[in-house]
Structure formats: C-alpha cells, structure tokens
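Private note to self, pasted from the team thread so I don't lose it. Backbone tokens:
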C-alpha cells in the first residue's frame, strides 16, 4: 500500500510545482529519503506523511486518504454539523448567518453544495422551480441555470467569468476531479475568461434583479474557519453578500 501513499505525495508535490529538493528542505528530510518514499522503496511514518502534507497544503480529507494508503488510520475526524461534537461550531455558524440579516449569507461546502443559509438568502431564491431546490443544491450551477438565477443576474457574463476564475483557482489548489468537471462544464472550452466589459469597479458585483426593474447590487466576502482540524469544518465557507450601493442598502433595510 505504501507505493500508493508515496505516489500520492509525489502528485501533490508536482501540483505545487516543487522539486524534491524544495520539499525536502521545507520538511527537513533528506532528498534521498523523500525519493524513496515517493517510489515506495521506503515506508514513511504517519508523522512523516503529515509533515509532508502540511508543507504541501494538502486538504485534510486527502491527508486521511494518503494515511489510509500508507496503512495508517486517518488523523482528522469527520462529523456532520448536527453531530454533538460540532454543536458549538454549528451555533457559531447560525449566529453569523442571523447577525448578517437583512443581507444574504449562505454556507457552502468545498463542492459548492448549499449547507444552510439565512432568510435573506432564501428570499433571493423565491420563485425558483422547486425541482432545482431539491437537496443537494449546487449553488454555482443554480446561479447559472437558465431556470435558476441566471435570468435575474443583470451582469451575468461578468459574474460567470468571475466564477470560472474562482473555480479554476480552487481546482489548481485542490485537484478535486468534481471541481475539475464543474470547471470544464462552465468554461465551455475557453482557456481564459473574457469579460465583455472592462469595469472600473473595485470588485466584481452581483447585480440581481428583484421585483420589477429593481436591481440590487452586492459585493461578497468568503469566510473560512482558521486552522481547522476536522474534515467537514475545513471544507465549509460562509458566503456573505453586502450592499454595493446605497440604493441596495435602503431596499434591504426597508427604508
């Protein structure tokens, strides 16, 4: 089994564009030993695997898989948000979502599936066909679906290009084949996004049509938990939307 662990570590090293010497220096191991590990000639300890994974910024889920391939038990626990050990984390997430009212905020996992959201976010989905909202809901696909949010997004081409860039960066970092498939699906074979309009805006807004001709403009932030040691927690992100102009702020505050 160790050759599989070694080849996985080699794949991650190459994904990070590091030479064996670069990684050996960072992890304080000899280049020869690292070479033996990658070819399966030496069996790394679980501590060595985790040290190399740390230097390579390997996601916790993948670290567990590499440990299993090396014949060891996973090092990082995984729970559902509803499990007792996650009660405090779940409470923190709910507090963040509720405190963000009346502005939309939602929680997604590493594959863009909706975990939970506040009331303002669900209001943005009002009128979407029910079959598109059957769990699991992929937020990225929903936003670009012709039956989903796409017709409501006033700057759809710009927003789509923003999502493609973000997805490409995520794939480069994670190597997740599901993300790779989503990227191929969204990019339509284009090598790079090509925004049709060059904007002077500081960030790419989400311009969303609501009642009548009203367009709400949002900027978004992404929040992740610092130094997570649990798989589910490491894969969660809170997407919070803020008014990008005074008209949107007044509309959402009922002014």
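Design output:
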């Amino acid at each position: 089994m160790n050759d599989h662990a070694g080849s996985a570590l080699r794949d991650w090293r190459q994904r990070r564009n590091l030479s064996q010497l670069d990684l050996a220096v960072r992890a304080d191991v000899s280049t020869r030993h690292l070479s033996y590990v990658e070819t399966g000639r030496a069996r790394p300890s679980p501590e060595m695997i985790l040290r190399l994974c740390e230097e390579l910024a390997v996601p916790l889920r993948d670290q567990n898989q590499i440990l299993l391939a090396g014949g060891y038990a996973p090092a990082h626990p995984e729970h559902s948000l509803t499990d007792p050990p996650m009660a405090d984390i779940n409470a923190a997430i709910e507090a963040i979502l509720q405190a963000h009212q009346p502005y939309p905020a939602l929680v997604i996992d590493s594959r863009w599936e909706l975990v939970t959201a506040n009331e303002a976010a669900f209001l943005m989905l009002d009128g979407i066909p029910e079959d598109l909202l059957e769990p699991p809901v992929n937020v990225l696909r929903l936003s670009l679906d012709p039956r989903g949010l796409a017709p409501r997004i006033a700057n759809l081409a710009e927003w789509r290009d923003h999502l493609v860039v973000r997805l490409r960066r995520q794939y480069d970092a994670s190597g997740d084949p599901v993300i790779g498939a989503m990227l191929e699906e969204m990019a339509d074979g284009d090598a790079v996004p090509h925004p049709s309009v060059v904007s002077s805006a500081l960030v790419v807004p989400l311009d969303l049509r609501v009642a009548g001709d009203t367009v709400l403009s949002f900027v978004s932030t992404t929040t992740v938990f610092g130094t997570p040691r649990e798989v589910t927690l490491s894969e969660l992100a809170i997407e919070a939307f803020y008014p990008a102009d005074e008209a949107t702020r007044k509309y959402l505050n009922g002014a």
